[in-house]
Amino acid sequence: MYAQCPECLTVFSFDAETVAQAHGTVACGKCGATFDCLPTLTEQLPEETYETLPVHPSSPAPPVLMMSVVRAGPEDAVQAPLFAHAPPAAEDEDDAPAGMPSFARLQRLPQRTTHRVGRWVAVCGALALVLAAQLVWAERRPLTANPNTRPWMQTLCGWLGCTLPPVADLSKLELISRDVRPHPSVPGALIISATVRNDASFTQPYPVVAITLSDLDGNRIAMRRFRPSDYLDDPAAQSAGLAAGASASLVFEVKDPGKKAVAFEFSFQ
User: Fold this and answer.
1) 183 to each of 30, 193, 226, 264, how far by Cα in Å?
2) pLDDT tens digits, 183-223
3) What is the CATH number of domain 170-268?
4) C-alpha span between 42 and 54 (Å, rounded)
5) What distance in Å separates the CA atoms of residue 182 and residue 224, rounded to the nearest whole number?
6) Given pLDDT bands bounded at 50, 70 and 90, which one contains residue 257?
7) What's the rounded Cα separation, in Å, for the pair 41 and 115?
8) Looking at the chain, which residues constitute the CATH 2.60.40 domain(s)?
9) CA trace torsion 17, 20, 26, 28 (10° rounding)
10) First vs last Cα of the chain: how many Å apart?
11) Closest residue by Cα to residue 255 from 180, 178, 196
């Protein structure tokens, strides 16, 4: 999940547990502002370049949830006989002991059919599979990133014909060098280059790179996020990811924001 700080416009990545801790109220780790993350909460970042995330429209009435998980109710309780010590039911009412009132005679209870039991077992099994699939889909990111559950997820994907995304750990991406200079052939443009190394023991996907240009006082002048498709021309290299221990040179072409931009910052998302 993603949400944007309304003060400094920084976009953060987090999970549902973080949202639930204070009912959507979070604190910005960049500028320290406290804000409600629910208006801009989104599962995917926009594909195109953006400055702010779209705000969800508010509604005076709560939304109605239509997708439900139905749980089978208990079977109707079988009523106990009126007399605890009544004699066994006769095969025929004419065989009942003489003088016994009709209301005291035990009636033969209907027996459950095998068809009905099998139907409920099939329904419960189908609901359990649907619930399990929903749980796996909701927790697919931590499950694929966990080394204990990833082999199981790979086996499941082999059955379903899908491919697991590479495991991402942004803390293992090390920025080795960076540089900014005027574009040699495009007036009013800059070329920003950087070298990043994957210190993880596994292949990682290329990250979203955020570049921020600021003035002498640290005020942000310009900021842009680059997806892997923006700075990698080879789709095969992008799909393969950054191998463990490997380094990659990244080059970005941006518009020159002016002489006030004297500092720049890289971050991975």
Assistant:
1) 31, 11, 18, 16
2) 988 898 989 999 999 998 888 899 999 999 888 888 888 88
3) 2.60.40
4) 9
5) 17
6) confident
7) 48
8) 170-268
9) 20
10) 12
11) 180
Cα maximum dimension of the chain: 115
In 3D space, the residue among 144, 146, 147, 204 whose CA is nearest the CA of residue 173 turns out to be: 204
pLDDT per residue over 73-104, tens digit each?
Answer: 555 444 445 444 444 544 454 555 555 555 55
The pTM assigned to this predicted structure is: 0.41
What whole-number distance in Å separates Cα of residue 50 and Cα of residue 122? 49
Reported in sequence order, the residue ranges of the chain that DSSP labels E, i.e. its strands, are 2-4, 11-13, 25-27, 34-36, 173-182, 189-198, 209-214, 220-226, 247-255, 263-268
Distance CA 131, CA 128 (A): 5
Task: Name the DSSP class of 159.
Answer: H
Q: Which single residue is written with the structure tokens 């080795």?
A: 176
Q: Above 90 in pLDDT, residue 226?
A: yes
- Count how many Cα atoms sit within 13 Å of the Cα of residue 70 in the half-sphere of its side chain: 7
Neighbours of 63 (CB within 10 A): 6
The DSSP symbol for 204 reads B
Residues contacting 265, CB < 8 A, separation 6+: 211, 212, 214
| DSSP 8-class letter at 102 | G
